[in-house]
Amino acid sequence: MSRQLQVSVLDLVGMRPDESTGNAIARSVETAQHVERLGYKRFWLAEHHSIRGLACSATAVLIGHVADKTSTIRVGSGGIMLPNHAPLVVAEQFGTLASMYPNRIDLGLGRAPGSDMPTMRALRRTSSGDDFPELVAELRQYLGDPKPGQIVHAVPGEGTHVPITLLGSSGYSAQLAGHLGLPFAFAAHFAPQYVEPAMELYRRHFTPSDVLDKPYAMVGLPVIAADTEAHAKRLFTTPQQRFLSLVRNQPIEVRPPVDSMADLWTSAEADAVAARLALAVVGDHESVKQRLQRTVDWLGVDEIFAVTDTYEQADRLRSYEILADVAKEITLPS
């Protein structure tokens, strides 16, 4: 007996050059509504600060807005960078969201800063991330049932048991997620070289818990599906340009596709971008199906988060339509 692959979306609220934040957010809402109709499981929003081209700094606010504009899809964080925040505040925010939108809110947690050193100082971040396990334990306590003698309470938040997933781009969170018996999501949309050892660590250290009796693994993947192979490859030059800007430490707005990247980068830059996008799933229905099935078989994941950067919204929506059809043909072992 086999299971169907679960598909979800990770959204960074990408902005075009000179675009208003409101337009970018409206486009994300439209995307969430679209994938909800297609039967996607989740729509998660990232947390990044002081990065021109991304409008996802106020993640909890965005989650509330998207949840209000949808009705069934789960909405959550991919993820909240916990060392940037007091666990009590996160518990209050997500406890409030869970109270407003019952059984629809997810809390994905990461330990990276989501920013550079000056921005970390501006955030008053005092944690290096080394105390991430303690921060996670404190947050889970606030979201759980009250304990005798407990002095500080998350109101709202206490007793909501908002589902938590640990996110990572290395083995650190994978091992912790396994130890705690929590779901784990790996950011292969920008760190594909570490995904296999991280998944092995997660399964090796997994201990059944009151949350899971067996591992539940997710992976973020760059995905661009189109009606033809040629069109998909052309659309793929948009995320290629974004990562090229990242390599050059430039604003990472969503830029129009080009016929060729050859004149835009050096060979070293091309190699750096290719390394970041090594697990990109790009093509028409059949090639996306083949690539995705190979990746799912290789990693043994239960769910994927598609990260789809296209300049035109119509291309993004069409990509998610094709992916929804492909997912119905991908099988997982029981």
TrEMBL record:
GO cellular component annotations of the record: cytosol
InterPro entries the UniProt entry points to: Bact_Lucif_Oxidored (IPR050766), CmoO-like (IPR019949), Luciferase-like_dom (IPR011251), Luciferase-like_sf (IPR036661)
Any one GO molecular-function label of the UniProt entry: oxidoreductase activity, acting on paired donors, with incorporation or reduction of molecular oxygen
Pfam families for this protein: Bac_luciferase
Taxonomy, superkingdom: Bacteria
SUPFAM superfamilies listed in its UniProt record: Bacterial luciferase-like
PANTHER family referenced in this protein's UniProt entry, alphabetically: LUCIFERASE-LIKE MONOOXYGENASE
Entries under NCBIfam families matching the protein: oxido_grp_1
Family: To bacterial alkanal monooxygenase alpha and beta chains.
Record protein name field: Luciferase-like monooxygenase
